[in-house]
Amino acid sequence: MRSLTLLFRPLILAVALMLCVIPRLAQAQAQDKKLYVELWAEAEAFRTLASQNFLTALKNSSTPEANLVFAELGELVWFDQDNADDWSIFFRHSLVNFVATGNDIEFVYFQNPWADITLITLWSRTPKDNRLRIVDVGMLMSSVIRGAKVPFQIGRGWMREKAYAPVAIGEINAKTTNQITDAGIGKISNPLASLTSEQAEAMVAGSALQWMEYQTSLLPLFADETGIASAMRAAWNNVMTAVNKKQLANVLPANSPIKKLNAIDPALWASLEPVAYIENEGNAVSIFASSRNPNTYAALAIKGDDKKAKITHFDFYQFSDFLDKDAK
Length: 328
Known about the structure:
Structural class: alpha+beta
Number of strands: 8
Order of helices and strands: HHHHHHEEEEHHHHHHEEEEH
Distance between the termini: 49 Å
Radius of gyration: 21 Å
Largest sheet: 4 strands, antiparallel
Number of helices: 13
Oligomer: single chain
């Protein structure tokens, strides 16, 4: 078995490099538009391909050295040596975020808001073709990006908020996104810069626990359970049937935005996958995110039990809609 020092090397190296780059980031007032478009295209192409075939995505966008780190990190976070499918699941609903700095190393963050963890990837141009490729990676809990202090609290931050779940997830993710941007342009100090090697190790371990919590929370939607989870599965099936028949008005509450919902691309409906489930005292909320467009998600709320339940709310949300509100 590898030593802990080697196993936790990815995030430790990322933080060390960040310490070197941060003074230069503070001088960056505006992003290079050409570089921004190039980096976004490379990062989004990697995310899209990785969500379908992770090994092919590595071949296209990563270096051999980074591939080894991905393998090591995957064993720690997914508890699985054969973890290509786990990585694909992670990328299916992750958001790309970065600030194009023009430095030798560019940091691209893949935020998975549902598990509230973030993959840091380091990109650099390769001598062979001058293309930007991944040269190293690290994983951490997104709460640390938002400024969480030691001792770090394990758990998805949006679950601790009082707001309605789909709103809470949008607001928390906006805080993560805006912190990354503000630190990248030098507006604030980067909270990751002060992490010690021990704290970096804790980030990887904490990320693994949060991923497990996220995956476990979805089990009621797949298991043959009774109670309100059973009613939720039935309600979602009713919604999707109504979508196909263009009869949403027959199953949703009277105040639902039927016209807006009917105008949604059928391909987007088909791409929705469960990413969150919460139940409390006869109420339940399920959230379904698009693997086609991770910026978009839908929330379905019901009240009752498996014998009698009614849909109380259904609507679509976009993470980008929360960004300006948080910035203010």
